[in-house]
């Protein structure tokens, strides 16, 4: 199943000529490619699939989607644990 998870962009930078944002999903922060959503700025919400922000959403839609995914148990296994998130961050 393909699953996009909503998150909040908390910072934006570049790495190897790619636009990378730090996106917060609940209590986890992950690096995410923002190349598909060039209009996004810090504070915006995005839908993320396999490390790429694929669309921008408003805060209400992001919250409702996150709650629905959580209630259905679909977030389990989709977001890395804190340790896995740190390993991912170190690789970038």
UniProtKB/TrEMBL annotation:
One MF term in the entry's GO annotations: iron ion binding
One Pfam short name: HupF_HypC
Residues annotated as signal peptide: none
GO biological process: protein maturation
UniProt family annotation: Belongs to the HupF/HypC family.
Name this protein carries in UniProt: Hydrogenase expression/formation protein HypC
Protein species of origin: Silvibacterium bohemicum
């Amino acid at each position: 199943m393909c699953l996009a998870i909503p998150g909040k962009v908390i910072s934006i930078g570049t790495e190897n000529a790619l636009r990378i944002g730090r996106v917060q999903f609940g209590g986890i922060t992950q690096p995410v490619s923002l190349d598909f959503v060039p209009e996004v700025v810090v504070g915006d919400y995005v839908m993320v699939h396999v490390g790429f922000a694929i669309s921008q959403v408003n805060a209400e839609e992001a919250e409702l989607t996150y709650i629905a995914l959580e209630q259905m148990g679909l977030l389990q296994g989709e977001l890395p644990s804190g340790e896995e998130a740190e390993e991912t961050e170190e690789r970038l």
